[in-house]
Structure formats: C-alpha cells, structure tokens
Write a structure and sequence with these properties.
HIT family, subunit A; alpha+beta; binds zinc ion; single chain; 190 residues
Amino acid sequence: MKKLWAPWRMKYITSAADKNQSGCIFCKKLKSKADHNNYILHRGNKAFVMLNIFPYNNGHLMIAPCRHMGDFTALNDAELLEIMQLAQACQKAMAAVLKPQGYNLGFNLGRVAGAGIEDHVHLHLVPRWNGDTNFMPVLGDTKVVSEALEDSFKKLKKALAEYFRMKKRATSPRIKRNKKDKKSLPDAKY
Ligand SMILES: [Zn+2]
C-alpha cells in the first residue's frame, strides 16, 4: 500500500495502550446498542461492518466476525463467507456514494504487519483516489475527521441498506416466480 499521510492516526497509536486495558473495541461496540455513535454500518449474522474512526482515508471501514477471534485460520466457513460477502456489499456501496478509483482490501495479521487490534481479526476496506488528495487536504484536524466520518457514515449506511434491499428483492421467491411466469408466456399461444 502506498503510504498515506494520516497524522490523526497518531492519537490512535498513542492511545493503543489504553485501548488494551479497556478490552476489545470490536466486542464492546458490538455489545452496545449505540450503532450510530459507534459507526456500525451493518450487523450481519456472523459478521459486522464499522467505520474506522482513525481512518487511513475517508470511508475506511472494517469488517469483523461477531465472534471474538484473533486467529484468522480459526474462522469457520460461515464467518469467512459472510465477511467476504460484506466486503462485496461495502465495495458496491462505496462505489455508489464515494466513487473511489481503487480499493485496498486486506487483513493485517500481527503487530509487525500493522494490526492495531490483534485479538479480533478484521478486514480493512480502504477506498483510494488518485493521489488521495481529496481527504484532509490541509491539516490533520480532528474536527474535520469527525465531520468526514459522519458524512461517510450516513452515505454508506444508506447505500448498504439499498444494496441489501435490492439483493433481497432479487432473491425473493415472489420475484423468481414472476420471472418464471414471464418465461412461460410464449407457451400461452399453444
Ligand atoms: Zn473482540
């Protein structure tokens, strides 16, 4: 990944020790009902999506299993499937509302690989723009970051909800039956 200039992440890096003391941030946010405050974009059966509040870029989100698990190789099939399905959904949502030119999608496993939280695996999805100059062009002002977070949260939440609504509609039995009805129309002449 091309290094991004993200000075607001210093707050995250310097407070990492405190974070360890206060328990797993993923589990804590999942337990809480304040999804908007916690920037939780979507709750699935086995995995969930939340914005990274110390983002590398505007819209940077994370997809994590609901189960507290630090070992990627220990994730089960259902968890792996839902995490990847959510990654697809999130990319679609990002494409619709943030219109990035590229994406970084990946896991940081282990501290030396850049993992901030090692005990609960999570998949990063970072939208990228050419030069990445659209976000935080002047200074690492935390107020600007929080405003950008709020804006991205609202846009992505709406786009994700729309994605799942369309997906549900496309796979609902009623629609399938209608498609069949249409296909069987030519038979009507016999
Ligand atoms: Zn956890």
